[in-house]
Amino acid sequence: MSNESELNGVAIIGMSGRFPGAGNVNAFWQNLVNGVDSISRFSEGDLEFSVATDGEKNQNQKFVRARGVLENVDQFDAGFFNINPRDADLMDPQHRIFLECAWEALEAGGYSPVEYPGLIGVYAGCSFNTYLLYNLCRDRAFAANLAGNFQVGSYSTMLGNNTDFLATRLSYKLDLKGPSMSIQTACSTSLVAICQACISLLTLQCDLALAGAVSISFPQKRDYLFQEGSLVSGDGVCRTFDTAADGTVFGHGAAVVLLKRLAEAVADGDHVLAVIKGTAINNDGAAKVSYAAPSIEAQADVISMAQAAAGVDPESISYIEAHGTGTPLGDPIEIAALTRAFRNGGATRNGYCAIGTAKTNVSHLDVAAGATGLIKTVLQLQHEKIPPLLNFKSPNPKINFAQSPFFPADKMINWKRGETPRRAGVSAFGVGGTNAHVIVEEAPVSPPSGPSRSQQLLLLSAKTPTALAAMANNLADHLAKDPGQNLGDVAFTLHKGRKSFPHRLAVVARDAEDAGAKLRASNAKSSFRGQAAATEPSIVFLFPGQGAQYVNMGRELYDAEPIFQAEVDRCADMLQAHIGLDLRTILYPAEGDNPDGAARINQTAVSQPSIFVVEYALAKLWLHWGIKPSAFIGHSLGEFVAAVLAGCVSLEDALALVSARARLINQLPAGSMMAVRMDGKELEPLLPAGICIAAFNSAKLCTVSAPTPLLQTYQEELQAKKIASAFLPATHAFHSPMMEPMVHEFAELVRRTSRQAPQTPWVSTCTGTWVTGEDMADPTYWARQVRHSVRFVDALDKIISKPETVFLEVGPGTALGQLAGQHRGKPAGLQVFSSLDPNLPAGNELSTLLGSLGRLWIAGAKPDWVSFYANENRRRVPLPTYPFERKSHWIDPSDYSTTVKDPPHPPTAASPAETGATQNGDASLKLAEQVIQEQLRIMAQQLDMLQNPNASSI
After folding, report:
1. Alpha helices, H only, 407-546
2. CA separation for the pair 880, 878 (Å, rounded)
3. CA proximity to 180, closest of 188, 191, 172, 168
4. Reported confidence tier of residue 825, pLDDT bands at 50, 70, 90
């Protein structure tokens, strides 16, 4: 999409819903393509309530037992939304279901309300609350108390049952700070909400918007009274546009979409489902026969306005999702209005635009109908199919399809992409005259994702361990069904589009099959699991010293991670003037080059700069990924890396000092170092002359230094005493009197550098306590640091006792992490992670690093995912949403001890929503019938005039 005008519009990036016969959008689509009629028909024994009295039944009035039923409406995950169970019991199920659908829509779009930096608006509506009337207010005392709704005893009930609080409750629970509006325009509510959300987005009032509605009335399984010529079907079948159409069927459902400005959605790599190109809302006003009657003029006007707002030719629109209630007069009026709008817009062709409606599949979902129709249309655009209109055999004779642009979609239509974008219109008309129409266009073709890491870190989290297990299995199933989905995009969506909950799981995988197997496995080798602490952990970077070096340490990272490579290159370029060679030729030799590389990298003049460079580059990579240390501990040479990162010494000076230190040591007589399995403080008084403790590493391990012959002899003595020991790969006796000849010269070199007090806390392994500004001002600190024993045990003592501390070894090997894990003062459950593990086979460096990043996240760290993906072109992709753990929250009318002998009949969806009259057999019904019949007579006359081809108004 290169043309800027093509980026105008509002992207639909997420959808969620619950519909009769379908618990989610995917199931809804399967029912549509399979031609499933999801309207339930009940036996008399199934009824939870009947509007018929015995007397009415005896008069042979027709009561129809049909409705679109929503399953499990009592079920709700109150704990997920931190709602008290009792409050959940008292809350209108419409509010509860809308909360869940809104969360699913956000996750379907790949966004977490916690992580998203912009404003998220809410535009929502719900139907009249019958749960309050039928379930709760059956108790007179309860109803009387609720009347004084600001009393303490019923205030929360009022908040949970008032339509005013649907949108704002969602904003509160999800911490959304954009506009939050509850909208009520009867049957057009949800589409009006979507139109208003689009306006808010395009006027920059918010950056994302949730829009939709929910409609559930109770009891669900109830009948309704059919009367000839009324709005409801005589047999519980909706036959939109058909000659046998005699009315609609009402039902229950919820539908929510997530919207975003198209240009930003494309730029952000969102999964765009479709584009809203234009919207319009108007009202009939008084120019109609009655308040409840439709207006051809207003319907035609709103459609024309939407087309004008979209800037599209009506002949480019190839599908209309009609309001389509299936009434004998409403359907012809709608087609007449559509025809007028299309003709006024310049359309001259006939029969080129398919028309359908979801109502024949799921019934009329009242306030949720418009959003349901929009979701159906978007699914059709996505799947490139238009499912057949159910129950259609021949057109209503009052509809002149032959002279209109439209034809009923009575069979499956392949709706393929062409040279021009596929477009559709969606209508919703509400009783009271508020009409809405939107123009929808197919999503732009998404550019392919860019290259990604050879392995991916998948992160999942949930509020409970059982939800986490379900989440892992759901993702594994998803990957098995779509193994070609880019795993980098999957990881990106999980990182950027999901809120982090306490119970967490991390998996490092190469492909979908590998990921699926690890997600299903429960062993620690396949995945990492744990519970994050309530507070963010305090991360301590551990920098190892000489002895852990090896050829190709960090090679996989050098090839895969630009930040790591850039820092290695930067250091290597600076070092050439100091060491006389390109360090990279030894660290990362080409295949067949440098056959003596292993020997050369163990030479002090090379090993010390090599370790410094790799540790520094690793640290910069961790910092780039958002892993911020609270403190550093460097073991011997590792202190130089700590000094740079703490702001004490510049990188240039540190590289010069490390090179000079290595050169000066290299000029000294050779010596050796040996690890001894014993506490250094116990061993020190027993050492022979000429041997000293080089490092106090743990209560069970120390290192000794001396001339090689002395150590060889001493090792034999230790073996005789059955004390384990092992020579280390060192060419000199570091941290011993053998370093004395270079101390003065090195101190002079340090004196010439600029040094500052630490900006990040740093525990010295030379002094065993916190480094101060005075330490850095003293040039002899670094001379003492190379000469005296390393007091790693003492350094750990200063920091390890804090329970929230996590150690990350930033360098080659795992030795320091193991020492920390063995420390005598460690708290229970101490967590220690590594960056590079030379004990693993080649090709595992990235997996080790990513695994540690995942484990840090599990511990409660907050990686910077923007920086993590800074060098990748990633896209959000649809993934399974949160597996709510629903429980029944329901108060049955029989739960109350009531003095009401005959409770009031609940209003049916047909009567108040469409006619304004009651259908409970009272005297007002006869008056309402007379009014309706007169309205229908006048509307029939108007329609006859419209069908006249000579009528000038069309």
Report:
1. 465-481, 487-496, 512-520
2. 7
3. 168
4. confident
Q: Which residues are within 8 A (CB) of 218 and not within 5 positions of it... i.e. 6 or more apart?
A: 93, 130, 131, 134, 135, 906
Catalytic annotation on 624? no
Per residue in 342-371, pLDDT (tens digit) is 999 999 999 999 999 999 999 999 999 999
For residue 206, indicate whether it is catalytic. no
Active site residue 383: no
Neighbours of 590 (CB within 10 A): 7
- Count of beta carbons in the 10 Å neighbourhood of residue 145: 14
Closest of 922, 939, 941 to residue 292, by C-alpha: 939
Q: Which of 252, 323, 478, 495 is catalytic?
A: 323
Higher local confidence (pLDDT), 614 or 289: 614
With contact defined as beta carbons under 8 Å apart, do 280 and 195 qualify? yes
Tens digit of pLDDT for each residue in 690-720? 999 999 999 889 999 999 999 999 999 999 9
Question: Rounded to an integer, what distance in angstroms lies between the CA atom of residue 369 and that of residue 359?
Answer: 8
- Among 636, 725, 736, 789, the active-site one is 636
| Same fold yes or no, 39-445+913-946 and 672-729 | no
Q: Calculate Rg over the CA atoms of the chain.
A: 37
- DSSP symbol at 908: P
- pLDDT tens for 471-484 read 999 999 999 999 99
Catalytic residue among 252, 271, 364, 905: 364
Q: Which 3 state secondary structure label does DSSP give 536?
A: coil
- pLDDT for position 842: 80
Q: Rounding to the nearest 10 degrees, give the CA dihedral for residues 93, 95, 96, 101.
A: 120
Instruction: Tell me whether strands 75-76 and 503-509 are parallel, antiparallel or unpaired.
Output: unpaired
What would the CATH number be for the domain defined by 456-531?
A: 3.30.70.3290
Average pLDDT over every residue of 807-831? 89
Closest CA to 339 of 312, 370, 304, 305: 304
CB 847 within 8 A of CB 508: yes
Give Cβ neighbours of residue 488 (< 8 Å, ≥ 6 apart). 449, 452, 453, 456, 872, 874
Q: Give the dihedral sign, CA 703/705/708/710.
A: negative
Which CATH number fits the domain 672-729, given the four candidates 3.30.1380.10, 3.30.300.30, 3.30.70.250, 3.60.15.10?
A: 3.30.70.250
Where in the chain are the domains?
39-445+913-946, 456-531, 541-668+731-800+837-847, 672-729
CATH homologous superfamily for the domain 541-668+731-800+837-847: Malonyl-Coenzyme A Acyl Carrier Protein, domain 2 (3.40.366.10)
pTM: 0.89
d(CA 106, CA 886): 19
Local structure of 3: helix, strand or coil: coil
486 contacts 452 by C-beta, under 8 angstroms: yes
- With beta carbons less than 8 A apart as the criterion, state whether 107 and 498 touch: yes
314-352: b or e for each residue (b if 16 or more CB lie within 10 Å)?
bbbbbbbbbbbbbbbbbbbbbbbbbbbbbbebebeeeee
Return the CATH number of the domain spanning residue range 39-445+913-946: 3.40.47.10
CB 350 within 8 A of CB 405: yes
Cα–Cα dist 84/614, whole Å: 52
* Single-letter amino acid, residue 386: I
Active site residue 323: yes
CA-to-CA dists, residue 570 to 74, 563, 580, 821, angstroms: 62, 11, 15, 34
pLDDT(909) > 70: no
Q: Is the pLDDT of residue 82 over 50?
A: yes
| C-alpha angle 480-481-486 in degrees, rounded to nearest 5 | 75
